Amino acid sequence: MDKARELMDQHDDKVDQGLDRAGEMGKERFAGHDEHIDQGVDKLQEMTGEGDTTRAPEEEPPPPPQ
Questions:
Q1: Best CA proximity match to 41, nearest among 61, 57, 24
Q2: CA-CA distance, 18 to 20, in Å (whole number)?
Q3: Which regions are flagged for Basic and acidic residues bias (predicted)?
Q4: What does each of the 66 residues of the chain score in pLDDT, given as a tens digit?
Q5: Cβ count near 55 (within 10 Å)
Q6: 29 occurs within a structural domain
Q7: Does the predicted model carry a pTM greater than 0.90?
């Protein structure tokens, strides 16, 4: 299992692309559950490597006023 995790971390971008494709196929098969499928894909992408590498990086929110 450690070897599999190591490979997923090394190839995080490919894993994320595969998860995106699987999510799209799931949306076609299970119409109406797009939000749930997206949540599941996002959660899986967070669990591999550095997170979702297929999305543009989000801007960090400004610091709270002091």
A1: 24
A2: 5
A3: 1-45
A4: 678 777 777 788 888 899 999 999 999 999 999 999 999 999 988 887 666 566 655 666 677 787
A5: 11
A6: yes
A7: no
